[in-house]
């Protein structure tokens, strides 16, 4: 079966756009092929700075013939309807139509046969449409071709289109079409500097091999592997180790077609700057990796760069050029750092009075005061020193006004820690200046120092309550204030530090601190707790907890105590993995189903205590006795938050429940006995709700 080779050769494509562009090209082409009845065997897309390429294997040489039936008007319908039917179906007369009998009458049916087209013709039709409608995040229209203004919007000027199609055993054909005056062909080009000559290609294997010979590594992953392996080998050979950076590696691999790894250096005096600032300077400005001393673990005055050329002088000029750029950047960073150290953090705070946090929530200075007050209230609840938590909250945002953070926003918080230590602050206070932003995502580290935890909770709860109070909640995929991330951060801080906090009380306290007329604890938005509940469900599911178990525990209420919910879900999951748990669940489900049917039939609930005098069978008496004992034992275990013990108590219900359903007919002929037995089933349901709503659990 034939294969397609498509290459779109252009000026340099921004590295950040390449991976998505390759995926978009593969998706758009294959979706169109399938829509046209051309089901392929496999497809893979590639990107380099100057080209997008796609190979699609096993495309049928021809579309299948299509036969469809189209229903027309009734026999005897007006002539206008008949003529419209004939025109739409291409029939010459009604003699060419079939008649289909129907209870509503006899209808004309046209059998339409649409012969399939050659796949190469279909490709010639769909590919130019895809190119013209390609979803670049940003595109440009440029220059004139043949005296006419260019009409194609593309990320950078498009120079050539290679498009071939054919079976492996034959010479492929060119898929002929043109876009904005660019005719398709079989010609591409190698490396811009080392092999710029035109290359004639046939199919993908030939194309990839010829590009490699022309100093172009087509596969982005192959380029990443080369850069990573060469960088590690180069640093190891000199007794150093590479500071790995996957994001930077992804970007650098999109800047070169033929990666060549080299090492440069800078003056040791710049190592006096915090390591993170050195890394940010070198990474952001020159896209270079930093290097550690493998013995001390500290940064060295070396860096690793990736060139796009094998230079005649072995790369000396390239390395020297990078050093000339990095040196003044580090000099600036050193100046910023030393300048920042001259001003204490608290002396910067008055400027926050002129900076608006949000028009409805006041200035940054007002927000800092709210966080201070809330951190002081939370501190005793998490075992933190109140004075330290208050001091940390007071200083935590100050580094936002420093020169270094202004230049490198990604080191906010971290620089606060460095400056706090430099001015002699307590180690916990300094740590909180950095850690109060954490965790910033599902994989980010969670602070464990109690002062950091108190300030981090205060910061996030103030954000959530504030935006809830002014009705700026996340909607759909929009979350401009990162409130979902803040809620997840609160959950992880509580769960991973085993904290017992009432979210209701903390949120009410945060709301009371807002200078909003309508803001008081009585009017705490009720759906804020539901929002936390939804975030916790997501978190637990990502950790492997069954969603139905999460729902079963949430159905009991008490969502403001997150730690208790997490522990209860864990215990319930372990219980249901046991034979007792599985069988008891089946019994409870059976009881609930019977109750549901009978309650619907009688239009009433069978609540209230059963009458012991109506128990006629030993199995009824045994079940009633077990329910009473288990309910007391499970409730006591839940009260002391020993959920494993509560589950063990529940397991004692299994034998009497099994015996009851084996020996007892619930719907007895005597109405009083029937009602009493249904009430007994309701007692099973009520007793088990001490640990979870078992009706929410799937079999």
Features:
single chain, 699 residues, alpha+beta, seven-stranded mixed sheet, four-stranded antiparallel sheet, 25 helices, 49% helix, flat
Write the layout of secondary structure elements.
Elements (H helix, E strand, L loop, with lengths): L2 E8 L4 H21 L6 E7 L2 E7 L8 E9 L4 H11 L8 E5 L2 E10 L4 H14 L11 E2 L2 E2 L8 E9 L6 E2 L3 E2 L2 E4 L1 E3 L8 E3 L3 H10 L6 H18 L2 E3 L3 H8 L6 E6 L9 H12 L2 E5 L5 E9 L8 H25 L4 H4 L7 E3 L3 E2 H19 L3 H10 L7 H5 L6 H9 L4 H9 L14 H20 L13 H14 L6 H10 L14 H16 L4 H8 L7 H15 L2 H24 L15 H22 L3 H9 L2 H10 L7 H18 L11
Parallel strand pairs: 9-12
Antiparallel strand pairs: 1-3, 1-9, 2-3, 4-6, 5-6, 7-8, 9-10, 11-12, 13-14, 15-17, 16-18, 17-18, 19-20
Molecular structure report:
Strand 9 and strand 10 (173-174) form a beta hairpin. The model has no long low-confidence stretch (mean pLDDT 91). Strands 1, 2, 3, 9, 10, 11 and 12 form a seven-stranded mixed beta sheet that branches. Strands 15-17-18-16 form a four-stranded antiparallel beta sheet, with helices on both faces. The chain starts with a strand and ends in an 11-residue tail after the last helix. The chain is α+β, with helices and mostly antiparallel strands.
